[in-house]
Amino acid sequence: MGKEKILIIGASGQLGTELVEALRNIYGASSVVASDIRKSDNPVFETGPFETLDILDLAKWKDILQRHQPTQVYHLAALLSATAEQNPEFAWKLNMQGLFHVLDAAREEGSSIGRVYWPSSIAAFGPNTPRFETPQYGPMDPTTVYGISKYAGELYIQYYFQRYGVDTRSLRYPGLIGHKSDPGGGTTDYAVGIYHDALKGEVHDCFLKEGTILPMLYMPDAVKATLDVMHADPEKIKMRMSYNLAGMSFAPEEIADSIKEHIPDFQITYNPDYRQAIADTWPAVIDDSLAREHWGWKPAYDLAAMTKDMLENIAPRYS
Questions:
Q1: Among 25, 65, 266, 282, fewest CB within 10 Å belongs to which?
Q2: The Cα angle at residue 32 between residues 288 and 241, in degrees rounded to 5
Q3: Which of 74, 146, 243, 301 is catalytic?
Q4: What is the DSSP letter of 129?
Q5: How far is CA 270 from the centre of its chain?
Q6: What is the pTM for the complete model shown?
Q7: Average pLDDT, consecutive stretches of 10 residues, N- to C-terminus, the chain (319 residues)
Q8: What is d(CA 263, CA 256) in angstroms, rounded to the nearest whole number?
Q9: Domains by residue range for the chain, with CATH
Q10: 190 is catalytic
């Protein structure tokens, strides 16, 4: 394979911001094109090319493809779980039509695209999925438009691999926690906001109730997993839906206790809102043994290590 050219769609989001930085460190700044409907003010976006792109704008999408000729596309643009419920019709259109624009471009004759990454989510599971040791294969009956679009997307990326030979790769992310960007409207985003409140000396009013165990992953591990699955030899990717991925599982009071190890007077209150009903349909503990077996996945962070790192990195904002 010759020189790689990477295109990231939805680059200004929580995961995209970190992937831009990581991929530019690997391939060089000029080889990684970031794109989104608006440019983030994060300094990483000043280090290399940026394109303003609404992935639903087919003419602009084809123009960017023609000018940059990407060999790998990371398609991250989507409306997340809680936000999507406010506008389900548009969420379906963005999440599905955007994916088709990418997949169709990859299967066109003469396409430069050799590999497509698209993220799925634990939102693809539902109330009849086993909540503990959630298996790779099992009942999937999502209850949100976000989850429905993720499950449909998983079936379509598998279809495009089997029917057209598009090298599609995907992970089912649990809740992602990072310090480089603000929460993006997801049901697990309390686990980002809680650190900010703690450092501001404020009481954290949690929108989930005590005892709501959800699977989470610290952003450095999420980036590592994403790069690992994209860089793995094709024969190691034995499944073309999305791989289960896990890091740690905890309830709000457990993350609060881990913060109190560093900030003893931190306080949390509970005021569950509509996101509680979403969380109640999601897994608590994920079985990711196939990712570990097929391409060597292994997380580096547990709750204590993540809390220490989050507080150290966010603290300068509030000092």
A1: 25
A2: 25
A3: 146
A4: S
A5: 26
A6: 0.93
A7: 88 93 97 96 95 98 98 94 88 97 97 98 94 95 94 98 98 92 76 95 97 96 98 97 97 98 98 92 95 98 98 94
A8: 10
A9: 6-173 (3.40.50.720), 175-216+246-318 (3.40.50.720)
A10: no
